[in-house]
Design a protein that fits this description.
The chain is built from 13 helices and 16 strands. It is of the alpha/beta class. It has two domains: about 100 residues, Enolase-like, N-terminal domain (Enolase-like, domain 1), CATH 3.30.390; about 260 residues, Enolase-like C-terminal domain (TIM Barrel). The protein starts with a strand and ends with a strand.
């Protein structure tokens, strides 16, 4: 069996996606997600110029060898562009493997560890009252876990608060828009939000919150301490993780569980965080962490240190990535939770899939491979549209973490 052709499909059914399709001489194809929000064309070029020519003629069954070839052979290792491109290849090869075996991907990986994958949705509003109404809507939809974000008084915009409550897409302009941030205002406001949530809804549902890398370690420790009475499922991305040791300070000051990793690309980005048990959930995902092959390594290391998975699952990952992640979640033993932001109807039509939501859980489906394909004719009706993520400044005008 040989790889005969690879095609990169860039489309924008509401937002931009990059998809790799690998074809073989036996008529079996595999699909991989290569989307990197705001840098989609960089990954597409990397695939076209550097990876596709090296894949033609190779045996698609040799997944491990191809992964090592693309990672070690490039010399300039790691980074989001490289690892997203490798992930697309890896995901497509696992898809082919499942189709050749006539088995869903979770069976190829080793079989189910669970019957369903618990997911969380995003409730957000311009103020606390509006967020509470959104929490109620997600409860009515059947979610057992809900991430809550609210506008902060005195700030014109806040991360996680969108005009479209169900389909949040922050990449909103060809040139990045600029937001203004105040840590003091946020630290005063956040406990009020969760006090209101627990007062109205009690403690029956899991509640999560995303800080989005905006605090220093000591500020994050203060936030985590203030949120302890509300028993959060996790506090996500409390501080930038380039300095992994900074999480020791957070641990010293709070027992609120910590999740991090959606921007991680390799196991080395989280090695200290995991081995020193500085986090509780690792959020690395299929498309940005080198595919299923590498994500398995991260999960295996994490399990040794009581760290569970909680893969990123925003709408800037295509249904291809979601399908692959769900098969991974169904198989992996130390699973925690899966983020699930619903795609638009246009996106779902471009990427037909067999996973489904039911009573707070996603189910991966039984189709061979990861169960997601692409309708190329329909995709062609949605050409690429330049869109960048915002940037963030403090109230004095200096740049800050978005």
């Amino acid at each position: 069996m040989k790889i005969t052709n690879c095609r990169i499909i860039v489309c924008c059914p509401g937002r931009n996606f990059v998809t790799l399709k690998i074809e073989t001489d036996q008529g079996v194809h595999g699909i991989g997600d290569a989307t990197l929000n705001g840098r989609e064309l960089a990954v597409a070029a990397y695939l076209i110029e550097h990876i596709v020519p090296a894949l033609i003629g190779r045996d698609p069954a040799r997944i491990e060898d191809i992964w090592q070839y693309l990672y070690r052979g490039a010399y300039w290792r790691r980074g989001p562009v490289t690892m997203s491109a490798i992930a697309a290849v890896d995901t497509a090869l696992w898809d082919i493997k499942g189709k050749m075996a006539e088995m869903p991907l979770y069976d190829v990986l080793g079989g189910k560890s669970r019957d369903g994958v618990m997911v969380y949705g995003h409730a957000n509003g311009k103020d606390v009252a509006e967020t509470l109404d959104e929490v109620a809507r997600y409860i009515d939809l059947g979610y057992k876990a809900i991430r809550a974000q609210s506008g902060v008084p005195g700030l014109m915009s806040t991360y996680g608060v969108s005009k479209d409550r169900l389909h949040y897409e922050p990449a909103d302009a060809a040139i990045p828009t600029e937001n203004v941030w105040s840590t003091a205002k946020y630290l005063d406001h956040a406990p009020r939000l969760f006090d209101a949530i627990r007062t109205r809804f009690g403690f029956e549902h899991h509640v999560l919150h995303d800080v989005h890398h905006r605090l220093t370690p000591i500020e994050a420790g203060r936030l985590g301490k203030s949120l302890e009475p509300y028993q959060l499922f996790w506090m996500e991305d409390p501080t930038p993780a380039e300095n992994q040791e900074g999480f020791r300070i957070i641990r010293q000051h709070t027992v609120t569980p910590i999740a991090v990793g959606e921007v991680f690309n390799t196991i080395y980005d989280c090695q200290t965080l995991i081995t020193e048990q500085l986090i509780d959930y690792i959020r690395a995902t299929v498309v940005h962490a080198g595919g299923i092959t590498h994500l398995r390594r991260i999960a295996n290391l994490a399990e040794l240190y009581h760290v569970r998975t909680g893969s990123h699952g925003a709408t800037d990952l295509s249904p291809v990535c979601m399908g692959a992640a769900l098969h991974f979640d169904t198989w992996v033993h130390n699973f925690g939770i899966q983020e699930y932001m619903r795609h638009t109807p246009e996106t779902d039509a471009v990427f037909p899939h067999d996973y489904r939501f039911e009573n707070g859980y996603l189910h991966a489906g039984v189709a061979p491979g990861h169960g997601v394909d692409i309708d190329e004719k329909l995709a062609a009706k949605y050409p690429y549209r330049a869109a960048a993520l915002p940037v963030n400044r403090l109230e004095d005008g200096s740049m800050w973490n978005w």
